[in-house]
Design a protein that fits this description.
Layout: H1 12-16, H2 19-28, E1 31-34, E2 39-42, H3 45-53, E3 58-59, H4 83-91, H5 100-115, E4 124-125, H6 126-131, H7 133-143, H8 147-161, H9 171-194, H10 208-217, H11 226-254, H12 259-262, H13 271-280, E5 287-291, E6 295-297, E7 300-302, E8 307-310, H14 312-315, H15 350-367, E9 371-373, E10 378-379, E11 388-390, E12 392-395
Parallel strand pairs: 2-8
Antiparallel strand pairs: 1-2, 3-5, 4-12, 5-8, 6-7, 9-12, 10-11
Helix pairs in contact: 5-7, 5-15, 7-8, 7-11, 8-9, 8-11, 9-10, 9-11, 11-15
The structure holds protoporphyrin IX containing FE.
């Protein structure tokens, strides 16, 4: 253990560059304790994977962030089985590979529309205009929200996620939550009233709210679960993918990445190139669990009831798992990173996220060959999300 080694994800330095402290933790303090913040942290790949798979010992109930979840009942990210499994099962058909053929035209349309107003050599914010807009409009349309509602919904969900380590239950955030809740409840009520589902429709061909309405009407779900479930899907599906798209754009603008690194022989962005970027700089750097009993690892005991951060971003740079892990190597042999988690909470939107980024980045690389920063980018204010809230670009 090193005397002065302290992990505090609320610190600016962590947001700027968490990788140096990860290296020290993996090497010297793999079961780290920060008593001031009341948290523990696992940093090695093997340990993060182990904790994610041992959900009986590492519970998600009680929240996966530093603060409790603001999304409330229905947020299955913060549930354990059996409740978690029942809710996940309800929405998962929409995210499976075979459902993607229905979503692809939507992603392509949103991408084309997002690029349309952008002009060569004119600076634009690549986050709001592109990287965030594409996943946001897509997940909101999959839910069944109108496009005008998407921008509003994502703005409010972001306000709920923008917490610098301390719980912000400001009147504005609570009002936004109430407004969103009633939008989802009304949407589901309207579908129940219209009985808009049919026996022949498969889950993938209807919107998610229609399936939720059907589940409520047959007693598989309660109305009280609806807002939290919908908020979770928007939150999980937007800033994460925005982090991937904006991270790659930032890389193109700063020379870290070239178009040749990304494009395959068919001139499409390669999914395995995206996977390497996701390993190198994960949009979700960590999420937490709470121990349900005393847990022993590397000679230390984490007491029952402790908050443990599982450092996905550090696991992805573990030299025990990846050769030369700090290098962004697009020819690296495939190896599963921790970017999408593991175990029962393994990312539901993994296939969707990679397709969204593939379509978006292929389209922008077809349109432009030169990418430059047109100002100072700003990181999204979060303790666990590694993305941008502002990325000014000039392209031609
Ligand atoms: C690059 C983009 C993405 C990244 C890096 C990412 C990452 C993750 C991670 C690390 C988890 C595990 C949570 C945990 O361990 O507690 C997760 C879960 C989840 N993700 Fe993603 N995600 C991405 C995109 C998406 C998209 C587009 C959606 C679509 C709605 C989505 C929906 C979900 C949901 C619903 C869960 C919870 C699964 C469960 O608790 O069973 N994600 N994601």
């Amino acid at each position: 253990m090193l005397a002065n080694l302290v992990l505090d994800p609320t610190e600016d330095q962590f947001r700027i560059d968490p990788y140096p402290i990860y290296a020290l933790l993996r090497e010297h303090d793999p079961v780290h304790h920060n008593p001031q913040r009341g948290l523990w942290a696992l940093s090695r790949y093997e340990d993060v994977q182990w904790a994610l798979r041992e959900w009986q010992q590492f519970s998600s109930v009680g929240g996966v962030e530093l603060d409790e979840s603001l999304f409330g009942q229905g947020d299955f990210i913060v549930m354990d089985p059996p409740d978690h499994d029942a809710l996940r099962r309800l929405v998962s058909p929409h995210f499976q590979a075979k459902a993607m053929s229905n979503v692809l035209p939507l992603i392509e349309r949103v991408t084309t529309e997002s690029l349309l107003p952008l002009t060569s050599d004119e600076p634009f914010d690549a986050v709001t205009a592109f990287a965030q807009r594409i996943p946001a409009v897509t997940i909101c349309a999959m839910l069944g929200l109108a496009e005008e509602q998407a921008t509003w919904a994502v703005g409010e969900v972001n306000a709920m996620m923008t917490r610098h380590g301390s719980v912000v239950r400001s009147p504005q955030v609570l009002a936004a939550r109430a407004a969103l809740e009633s939008t989802f409840i009304t949407g589901v009520q309207e579908r129940i009233a219209a009985r808009s589902w049919s026996r022949t429709a498969t889950p993938q061909t209807s919107d998610i709210m229609t399936d939720l309405a059907q589940a409520v009407s047959i007693g598989e779900l309660t109305m009280a679960d609806i807002p939290g479930l919908c908020l979770t899907l928007i939150a999980a599906g937007t800033e994460t993918t925005a982090g991937l798209i904006s991270g790659v754009l930032h890389g193109l603008a700063t020379g870290l990445i070239t178009s040749d690194d990304l494009l395959g022989t068919d001139q499409q962005v390669r999914l395995d190139a995206l996977d390497e970027y996701l390993r190198f700089d994960a949009p979700i750097q960590w999420l937490g669990r709470t121990t349900t009993e005393d847990v022993h690892r590397h000679g230390r005991t984490i007491p029952a009831g402790s908050k443990v951060l599982l450092l996905y971003g550090s696991a992805n740079r573990d030299p025990r798992r990846f050769t030369d892990p700090d290098a962004l190597n697009f020819d690296r042999p495939a190896g599963r990173s921790m970017t999408f988690g593991d175990g029962i909470h393994f990312c539901l939107g993994r296939i969707l996220a990679r397709i969204e980024a593939q379509v978006a980045l292929t389209a922008i690389l077809q349109r432009w060959t030169t990418f430059q920063l047109a100002g100072q980018p700003r990181r999204f204010p979060s303790t666990f999300l590694r993305t941008y809230e502002y990325l000014p670009l000039r392209c031609n």
